[in-house]
Amino acid sequence: MGAVLSVRGASLAFGDRTLWHDLDLTVESGEFLAVIGPNGTGKTSLLKAILGQQELTSGTVEVAGGAANVGYIPQQKMLAASVRARDLVGFGVSGTRWGFPLPRRGDRQRVDELLAAVGATAFADEPVSVLSGGEQQRLRVGQAIAGDPSLLLCDEPLLSLDLAHQRGVSELIDAQRTTGAGVVFVTHDVNPILNMVDRVLYLAGGTFRIGTPDEVLRSDVLSEMYGTPVDVFRAHDRIVVVGAPDDHGDHH
Amino acid sequence: MDLFSEIFNFSDYGELLYLVRNSIFAGAVLGIVGGLIGTFVVSRDLAFAVHGISELSFAGASAALLIGANVVAGSLVGSLIAALLIGALGARARERNSIIAVLMPFGLGLGILFLALYKGRSANKFGLLTGQIVSVDDPQLGYLLVVSIVVIIALLLIWRPLTFASIDADVARAKGLPIGAISIGFMLLLGLAVAVSIQVVGALLVLSLLVTPAAAAMRVTASPVLTPVLSVAFAVASVVGGILLALGSSLPISPYVTTISFLIYVVCRIVGRRRTSRRIGSLA
Q: Is A124 in CB contact (< 8 Å) with chain B?
């Protein structure tokens, strides 16, 4: 066990607009961190900074084992070209391999294992374009875990899925923690993953709070962050935020 | 029957076949190039770029014709300039399309200017637009083969990352693949492929070799192995079939190539629709 991600003194500003500053964040092996907050607060920029695609204004990001050790799960979207389910997962296994595309021993077996691990064997040979959003996101999990990553970065992976698929896919991501992977999960709605989350990074109003959901998702904390009265209600394992200036995404 | 014998005429066929054996060989190699690169042209949504590159390639070829330089070399220069401009300026699809639309008439206009100034054989002029492989001489065939082989080998070497980047760019970038470099590298290969294809089917009909066979293959399969294999088979069948049919006639080969390639596409669409409706039926 140990830290799979350390962010030290990180700041990000575009022009004179500071999204966040002096951000210190450590994600331990097996930990589930949710990154939440309204649109435009730099959630996706933080993911890009971790991936090395976004330069920080100041501070450092360190991923244990480097970029090769990161699995990335994007939000569901239609692919332009037609590929089969197994080929999408196959990108995770051999998609970054240069040289003549000769099949390597064990590649196909590895893809079959991954398909089985995410419950996608039944539609392995179907074109991705005929699959449901939930089925596509299962493949995304299989693709992301192909290299046994120590850190899983998830960018709104549940967006546009129905409730049953939200549960299925988030449980699949949660299950990866048993192998020691840390999870950073960007979402506008924390409810589908509330019972999995260890800690929350809440971004709003140019500031941030890190802590357990109970420590952060409280009326007094969010009111202070937004600078306006905000009420947080908890009911039946769901959290509803009322009065936040931006759409908070709890209206599903 | 006069018209028919003008379109199809197989007298002295064996003798003719012997005379054009080099062209048939070159046509087959160009078919492999077109079939392979076409699968990426379709998955990267670059059909319009192919057309744009081909018009600048035409301008380069006609400039070469005018000053008495090597036509294949002129065609290559025009292609590569166009491919680099489109690749560098048009990273996003919408920008790319308007840049192509700006370049294309400019290239075609330049080409027409050079041809108007050219005082040589008019068959040469027409050939650049509509294809002329049978009249390509041996040294030029050599050029075509070398360029084609370079394109084929380079494509195979970058095959997997190129496929990943073409179909699933966001994740490929997250996995650390150099998306921008892959994109420019592909445009250069595409420029080379367009320049050599123009020698067979002409600037106006390049899409029939670089897009139609791949689009047809994708109607009937989603397999990453079967798609390029079928695409190459369709492209080779179109070029070689076109040359063989055109042999006895006095017509250029391009209408034969484009017609075969189009018919293959139509058949694949019909077969593909049956396949899709069966799957949807079985899922229901």
A: no
